[in-house]
Amino acid sequence: MGAVTTSLVTGLIAGLWTMSLRIAICVGFSQVIAMTIAGITGTAAPMIFGLMLNRDPGVWAGPLETAMQDLFSSVFLFYSSLALLAYVLPQYWP
Fold first, then answer.
1. Per-residue DSSP letters for the chain?
2. The pTM is what?
């Protein structure tokens, strides 16, 4: 529920800032998916690393896992925004 609320607020701010409903939808959709991916990797990474490496899963809840969340979420956020903007604003893309 937090991802949806945050994406609605972010999309609303982006839409008001650019005065474009299409950009607001792109930003909001990309934000909710990126936050969902962050939640999935935040839950799964310590369990997977703990089972694969037979180490304490709590160790992976620190900086390494946070870096993984940032990496996966940022990559998806940028590529989904690029794809959505290319679809809804084709006049700006070759």
1. -HHHHHHHHHHHHHHHHHT-HHHHHHHHHHHHHHHHHHHHHHHHHHHHHHHHH-S-GGGGGTHHHHHHHHHHHHHHHHHHHHHHHHHH-GGG--
2. 0.68
